[in-house]
Amino acid sequence: MGSELARRSMVKAAMAAPYLEREEEHDLAVLWKEKQDQNALHRITTAHMRLVISMASKFRNFGLPMNDLIQEGHVGLLEAAARFEPERDVRFSTYATWWIRASMQDYILRNWSIVRGGTSSAQKSLFFNLRRLRARLAQGGSTSSQSSMYRQISDALGVSEKDVALMDSRLSGPDTSLSAPVSSEDEAGAARMDFLVDDRPLQDEVVEGMIDDKRRSEWLQDALEILNDREKRIIVRRRLTEDGATLETLGTELGISKERVRQIENRALEKLRGALVSGNPDMAAMHA
User: Fold this and answer.
1) Is the dihedral of CA 183, 184, 188, 192 positive or negative?
2) Are 272 and 238 in contact (CB under 8 A)?
3) What gap in Å lies between CA 106 and CA 119, rounded to an integer?
4) I need a surface site. Which of 62, 155, 216, 243 has the fewest CB within 10 A?
């Protein structure tokens, strides 16, 4: 009840707002663009709210609240005001119409159905024109079969017949609640939601893992500074690269035996372990 009263009040205010003459509209647009004059913006948008309301009424058959459609249209109106170039010989209402319609259509596509209908320009055109074209073809008696109707709509909108058929099935079939039972014969009463299992970790676990990984990386970088150049080279090549180098390879590069490489690596690992534990109590607790 409250939302209906708010809508009526909004409509009444919009219809009472004065129209702007072309020259006055231009001057206000210049004031807004060049000086960010909030009063000029308010007068422009207020004068064009009747356009928003008129367009919202054209989309009322999608079953979404008129208040929400009007609000989305107002967002498009503000976007138009921000982008409008008053030096061009175009009325603001003509320019704003596209932005208002686009904002409402995007809102409808996001909220009309759980199943998205597509977001490309061709898919949007199909979504908003399919019913109208189908009704026109049916009234004109120009279609003898569903496939013939799909073909004619496909040609008219420049989309594939497969897309037409898929969109038609989406628009014709009702959304199914995730709480609905899978089968009327299921004694356990299992719902569709019970089968939507996501094995991925929870968001808080993902974030916690990212923070921990970053912290451990910083600890390791600090600890590596205690190693001499040869020790660091061996640890990085053996432990910190995707394809760890072999003892033989490093022995050849450094001019020492592979056994000597192993000894240096073990000594470096002990130095790293000691530095990490002594410098990071949290890590010491993890290894306790």
Assistant:
1) positive
2) no
3) 8
4) 243
Q: Are residues 218 and 158 in the same domain?
A: no
pLDDT tens for 104-134 read 988 887 776 544 555 566 666 777 777 777 7
Torsion sign over Cα 232, 235, 238, 240: negative
Whether 219 and 276 have beta carbons less than 8 Å apart is answered as: yes
What is the per-residue burial (b if ≥16 Cβ within 10 Å, else e) of 164-192?
A: bbbbbebbeeeeeeeeeeeeeeeeeeeee
Q: Which of 155, 172, 189 is the last residue of a domain?
A: 172
Does some domain include residue 239? yes
Q: For the chain, what is the domain count?
A: 3
| Domain membership of residue 62 as a residue range | 2-111
Does 10 share its domain with 91? yes
CA distance 284 to 74: 58
Token pair for residue 157? 């909108």
